[in-house]
Amino acid sequence: MSAQLKIVIIHSEGKASVGIQSPGCDPQISVIEGTLEQVIERVPGLVKQAQQKWAQSPQNPKTEIVTAPPGPSPTRTTSSSTGSSKTAPNKDQPTFF
After folding, report:
1. Could you point out which of 3, 4, 69, 77 has its C-alpha 20 to 30 Å from the C-alpha of 95?
2. DSSP β-bridge partners for residue 12
3. pLDDT digits over 50-93, tens only?
């Protein structure tokens, strides 16, 4: 596979996050412990793993969001500076004070 690749390494305190991305594919992210040199040595293997995953499924399936059936409006509890609380009906405009 000779597609364009973007590889990002963020290294801090002996740990690295390695992100590998190719156009039209979901990024593959790995966390590796070690020095920067040790992390860089592992990058070719991580690229190979990403390419194998992309060959099977370049993108994860979209998530289907299931909405809850309509029910009673929820109420929220607000508190004042005196520490007391009261229950207020859910309104379109939020209460700021």
Report:
1. 69
2. 15
3. 999 999 988 877 778 888 777 776 666 655 555 555 555 556 76
